[in-house]
Amino acid sequence: MTAVPTHPARTEKTWIRIPNGTMVRHRQEGHDGFIDGLTECVSGPDRNPDGKTQYRLNVGSQTRQLVTEHDLSILLDGNNLIIMARQKEPYRRSVTAHLRSAFADDRFVKST
Q1: Among 13, 15, 16, 110, which is least packed by CB within 10 angstroms?
Q2: How far apart, in whole angstroms, are the C-alpha atoms of residue 110 and residue 51?
Q3: 61 Rama class: left (phi>0) / alpha (psi -120 to 50) / beta
């Protein structure tokens, strides 16, 4: 018996973008930052499910790092809502529900 994935593999048509300002944690390197837009890539193997972009991750001062969504965990506050810069609770609640429909539960982590 094989396990059926809860969230099917996303393609360009079903891909849900993580909005700008969303706080995230790099899954391998452990540093926190926020999404600061998308960059279209012309070379390299790692891309988002749309097949052409990577996220710009702002990790402080003037430093940006290019990452794919596979590299990221989405940070939650004490109320289990995503953390976003300058956004009020009703909007964050809506975006949280939207992202939870696209990502597995293990992609969401509490902020420390």
Answers
A1: 13
A2: 29
A3: left
